[in-house]
Amino acid sequence: MKGIVFSEFNEMVEANYSPDIADKIIVESDLPSGGAYTTVGTYDHEELLTLARRLSRETGTEAAIVIRRLGRHLARRFTELYPGFFDGITSTFDFLDTIERHVHVEVRKLYPDAELPRFLTERTDENSMAMHYQSRRPFADLAQGLIEGCAEHFGDRLEITRTDSAADDLYKSSFNLKRVA
Ligand code: HEM
Known about the structure:
The protein has 181 residues and is α+β, with helices and mostly antiparallel strands. The protein folds into 2 domains: 3-61, no CATH class; 70-179, H-NOX domain (Alpha-Beta Complex). The protein contains 6 helices and 4 strands, in the order H-H-H-H-H-E-E-H-E-E. It has helices at residues 3-16, 19-29, 45-59, 63-81, 92-110, 140-154, and strands at 118-125, 128-135, 158-167, 170-179. It has a 4-stranded antiparallel beta sheet, with helices on one face. Strand 3 and strand 4 (170-179) form a beta hairpin. Helix 2 packs across helix 3 (45-59). Protoporphyrin IX containing FE binds at residues 1-2, 4-5, 78, 82, 85, 96, 99, 103-104, 107, 114-117, 135, 137, 139, 142-143, 146-147, 150. Residues 1-2, 4-5, 78, 82, 85, 96, 99, 103-104, 107, 114-117, 135, 137, 139, 142-143, 146-147, 150 line the site of protoporphyrin IX containing FE.
């Protein structure tokens, strides 16, 4: 997984908890990389899960919630770092439609070794959309946080329901998104 995700994890922990806790969990996680991440480096995604579990033990916040918070934080950061992806788009649904066919395609050009999930989106009615996630890595919580962060950015109120399944090392989740007034 790209270093940017790890460095933003660190930022998120510093902002939501404290710089001391951020340092402490890195030391206590005893990571193969040592925890000194550069944004362009690539690291084992297991390290992110280890950090989330450590933070969970330290703070009592469930690890899944930690990863979701990271997703929300990343969505905010992406609007600052990559404003071009958001230009001319006015709704969460329109933006989510661009992830698989545009955003992650560009991410792969930038980072050829990126490990990206697959997404399929379908509009079910005027106010609803389904987004299907598929990955070799278990990051549906990250996807959910990213969706929530995008909804916040576009000012949409979404009701999100999710069903998960995993088989043959493939993680699949379906998100049903409903716009509420
Ligand atoms: C401007 C918007 C976005 C940018 C720049 C972006 C970029 C990235 C990058 C750099 C990675 C790391 C790849 C790696 O670790 O090798 C990643 C992974 C990921 N992205 Fe995006 N992304 C964006 C939006 C989204 C959105 C809206 C979603 C969810 C709907 C999403 C879902 C994910 C997930 C779940 C992963 C983790 C890898 C996996 O599950 O296998 N991304 N993305």
